[in-house]
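Glutamate-1-semialdehyde 2,1-aminomutase
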Amino acid sequence: MCATNEEWFTRAERLFPGGVNSPARAYAAVGGTPPVFVRGEGAYVYDVEGKRYIDYLAAYGPLILGHAHPAIVSAISRAAAEGTVLGTTTTYEVEFAERLQSAIPSLERLRFTTSGTEGVMSAIRVARAFTGRTTIVKFSGCYHGHADPVLGDAGSGTATVGLSHVAGVPAETLRDVWSLPYNDPETLRTTMRKRGERVAAVLVEPVVGNFGIVPPEPEFLRTIHEEAARAGALVIYDEVITAFRFAYGAVQSLLGYTPDLTVLGKIIGGGVPIGAFGGRRDVLELLAPLGPTFQAGTFAGNPLAMRAGLALLDVLAKENPYGELERKAIRLAEGLTAAARRYRLPFTVNRFGGAFSTHFVDGPVRTYADARRADDRLFSRFFHGLRERGILIAPSKYEAWFTMVPHTWDDVEATLRAAEDVFAELARIA
């Protein structure tokens, strides 16, 4: 039996391209060998060598309640005992959809998928069917899953592994997707007024989570909605990261805008694979069997995800943890910033609610171009310094830190002490 992380990862490399089943898990951007994990409990994960880490990766966002929350474990166990997939409509998917609709009023109709990628893909398809147009406007650095049309100029995983063009995606597929700068209302306004009649939908992360956490500037969101309405295009919010992360419901309720379509994923499954898309009734009822737009999924609405999701919403509604999550994120963001300043390092933290991102760059990070300027070498050393001290974050300068319900204030202070040590080391080499 293998005993070390290196031995286990060597086995993985013989099986999976690059040793991973998602490139975001690789250490291509930071170097070194990834640890191989065996379990998670609350705010912590444990590798094969028995080392414990305070986890801010949170599986890239879904684990707002932490690992193996008793309510989620119980719900999944009960569901598995009664059948993991039935291939029919179940009471649980009806109940869960009703709960989501109550929390997110813009979901007049919705449909479940098994991933956020499928949700985005399906929302684009139905938007094109509704408008009779083909062009999608998206924004540089925003990641919307790995479906062909949205992989151009994407952030997150594609940026981490250095892919400006993804082989296997036909150029003609990308010609119908225009990628514009995020937080640049003037470029969007000019584009929509010149060629808006070709646009089926404007697709946006209302709060970016894929080149760091980047909140929208008020004029930018306003321009999206005004220009889409003027052109007869739909607005699609990708809330795969943001829904139920910052409030009970979608972030659109905090921002004051109502999109035509919304895509969900990550948190709503309670740690089980899930996606969903929904919105205006007149748009969604173009889907088969009511309409001519086909979309399907054998495992969509499966009982494991539905019951885990219901259990998750029960806990979030009862505990309302968002204020505490934000307070911990504020303490981390302010503590990290103060420590970096003490050592005269270029460093910027972006935060929204209980999530934040760290950027080794001077000045604000408002756009993908700003995020790309961050120092790769400093981030890599920062990442490994934290990991050596038992702090787990994503191995990419483009990803976010997420606070989780089980993080304690002792965890927060331990993290800041570890970061202080790492910043002291960085100052000696910077």
